[in-house]
Amino acid sequence: MAKDKKHNTEIVTKPKWFDKDSVTIPMLQILKEDGSFHKDADMPEYDKELIVKIHDTMQFIRILDERMIAAQRQGRISFYLASRGEEAESVASAAALDAGDMIMGQYREQGALAYRGFTVEQFMNQLFSNEKDLGKGRQMPVHYGCADLNFMTISSPLGTQIPQATGYAFGQKMDKTGKCTICYFGEGAASEGDFHAALNMASVYKVPVIFFCRNNGYAISTPAEGEQYAGDGIAPRGIGYGMKTIRIDGNDVFAVLKATQEARRLAVEEDEPVLIEAMSYRMSGHSTSDDPTGYRTRDEESEWQAKDPLDRLQKWMMNEGWLDKDHVEEHHAEVKAKVLAALKESEKVPVPHIDELINDVYDQPTELLKEQLEELKEHIRKYPDAYSKTSGRMD
Amino acid sequence: MAKMNLLQAINSALDLAMAKHDNVYSFGEDTGGFGGVFRATSGLTEKYGKHRNFNTPLVEQGIIGFANGLASQGSYAIAEIQFGDYIFPAFDQIVNETAKFRYRSGNEFNVGGLTIRTPYGGGIAGGHYHSQSPEAYFAHTPGIKIVTPRNPYEAKGLLLSAIFDKNPVLFMEPKRLYRASTGEVPEEEYTIPLGKAEVVKEGNDITVLGWGAQMEMTEKAVEQAEKDGVSCEVIDLRTISPWDVETVTQSVLKTGRLVISQEAPITGGFASEIAATVQDKCFLYLESPIARVSGIDVPYPLCHEKEYMADHLKIYEAIKRSMNY
């Protein structure tokens, strides 16, 4: 076989075309839809304590999502964004990581944050933009962030976190931290230029980053197949950038756990960036501003309902004797009560003081900003009724 | 005439433009059969087919790059960027390509058929990333026109002008008014000239200037000031670039006072550009300093949105200060 010396490329003398069928990427599944294991499956490392924690976190997030969608419908919060159907992806992947690994989310990874220990009160304070919110009430609901838990604050623009993850992981590698970064995004965000820049740079620099693509079938109304991409999903792109790549069943806790455990080892021990494409379905609308009945069918939704990650895990756990109906019901009632209590409490907490408006634009407010704030306060004092959220405590 | 809200007026303009020429295309994220997240493009796929009104993949730089190419080929490309806050991945395509296409080629090529539609502005609990007013970034770039309407009638007439203008146009839609602003709109095609401000109300004591969604605030403030006996001349700039210096300066030469309001932060905003030009052209006629009423220099905040906005009370206070100077 002749080879081009410089590139070590095989030389052919007749046109040889490649297409999307040249590489077909299978999907890892360990736990079948009926709640039993594939017999010959490679298992992740797990024990009862871990699986129960994953389960309880998934259940917590589902209840939180349900309650907060209701709260939005009642006009108590302005906006919400649920992760129903995708809880296995964020929770089980977070469970495969070290608490010191950085998480960079898109905006549907509340499961990973809850797994890290973000409390129901902390969730509520952000959702109500009150003065206890770590983000100081400045961003829309679900834009969580927490330095203590190594969870980077969410930003709405799509895909911007992906190259940032490459950069963050580069720093982790240079500092010899032994930690990695996981970066979540959807199949829609993978169309952004930032995605391509990020994967290419991560491969070139060999940094410890796990790109976790949640392929949930929709970018708001735009279906993945045929309208977001024409190829075989997102996974082949990883190979194009020279990256270790895997496709998994995103509704299978064990597949998510297994793939992310291996990915973390590759990232941290071998400085290999990894792309995981998790196949799932966004069971809820994109957000409370969206109505999916305008672009998809009930039949399609029920087809995916049958693959629900939480139901599937519960079936297996009950068969295994690790879960019983009582625990599910008790935990459900307990979480619901906690969520409702925190909701009522957070609602009463005032918005941040008006002085917070100019903090954090720079490390110190500029003289110009201080002047602008004073003018604003003078104006609010003149019309206290028009600015009732802040006028009550101006000093 | 028909009663329409601002979205329906935009939809009507798109409909008429697509009916007029087969080579008018409309596209963006979720703008296909679904009709866009605000429904501005609803019904267009059914009427003109999925090759005329369609979804793009989720990549703003791609949307505008594609639109530049399509327009340079001679078609009319109407590209939607879902929120003005998300236009920045396309900044290079707009600033270095769209705006310089004609100039750099010595007029061998142009993208005059391009119109970029994007919702902008706050007051909808949108936080940092669904609230911004990015007009000043683009106004700093020669080669692109920037237009923003204040109501449904203006929206339809200005958008039709923008689509068929021989230059690329950034058409900024005040999303706070999408459904809130309604009015009588002709069902047939009509145009409103670009580059021409409108004196919405004549007056003698002070000129109050704004554009887009700020006009609603301005009109409320003026109503209050008129009760105090101040005669206000109200101007809607309509086209931010190139702006109508003549109409504005003629008004200030008459009144001697000017208040400009904008949603964006004050520093480097387009109000500053207007103030600089007006003091140059009307220096000896000014009775008081030109006032800018705007957002302050912080990222658009969620919890302090009400405090942040350049609302009618702040404009009213600026009018009083100017009158009492």
UniProtKB/TrEMBL annotation, chain A:
Enumerate the catalysed reactions: N(6)-[(R)-lipoyl]-L-lysyl-[protein] + 3-methyl-2-oxobutanoate + H(+) = N(6)-[(R)-S(8)-2-methylpropanoyldihydrolipoyl]-L-lysyl-[protein] + CO2
The molecular function terms of the Gene Ontology recorded here are: branched-chain 2-oxo acid dehydrogenase activity
- Reported function: The branched-chain alpha-keto dehydrogenase complex catalyzes the overall conversion of alpha-keto acids to acyl-CoA and CO(2). It contains multiple copies of three enzymatic components: branched-chain alpha-keto acid decarboxylase (E1), lipoamide acyltransferase (E2) and lipoamide dehydrogenase (E3).
Q: Which CDD domains match?
A: TPP_E1_PDC_ADC_BCADC
Q: Which cofactor does it need?
A: thiamine diphosphate
GO terms for biological process?
Answer: branched-chain amino acid catabolic process
* Family, per entry: Belongs to the BCKDHA family.
UniProt-listed InterPro entries: Alpha-ketoacid_DH_E1_comp, DH_E1, THDP-binding
Tell me the Gene3D superfamilies matching this sequence. 3.40.50.970
Under what name is this protein listed? 2-oxoisovalerate dehydrogenase subunit alpha
Keyword Transmembrane helix tagged: no
The record's top EC class is oxidoreductase
Q: Which SUPFAM superfamilies match?
A: Thiamin diphosphate-binding fold (THDP-binding)
Per the UniProt record, one Pfam family is E1_dh
Superkingdom classification of source: Bacteria
- Give every Dehydrogenase E1 component domain span: 56-354
Q: Does the keyword Amino-acid biosynthesis apply?
A: no
> Which stretches does the entry tag as region Disordered?
284-304
UniProtKB/TrEMBL annotation, chain B:
Residue span, Transketolase-like pyrimidine-binding domain: 4-180
Q: Cross-referenced CDD domains, in alphabetical order?
A: TPP_PYR_E1-PDHc-beta_like
Per the UniProt entry, the Enzyme Commission number(s) are: 1.2.4.4
Q: What class of enzyme is it?
A: oxidoreductase
Q: Which Pfam families match?
A: Transket_pyr, Transketolase_C
Q: Which UniProt keywords apply?
A: Oxidoreductase, Thiamine pyrophosphate
Q: What does this protein do?
A: The branched-chain alpha-keto dehydrogenase complex catalyzes the overall conversion of alpha-keto acids to acyl-CoA and CO(2). It contains multiple copies of three enzymatic components: branched-chain alpha-keto acid decarboxylase (E1), lipoamide acyltransferase (E2) and lipoamide dehydrogenase (E3).
> Which PANTHER family does the record cross-reference, listed alphabetically?
2-OXOISOVALERATE DEHYDROGENASE SUBUNIT BETA, MITOCHONDRIAL (PTHR42980:SF1), 2-OXOISOVALERATE DEHYDROGENASE SUBUNIT BETA-RELATED (PTHR42980)
Q: Tell me the protein's name.
A: 2-oxoisovalerate dehydrogenase subunit beta
Recorded source organism is Idiomarina seosinensis
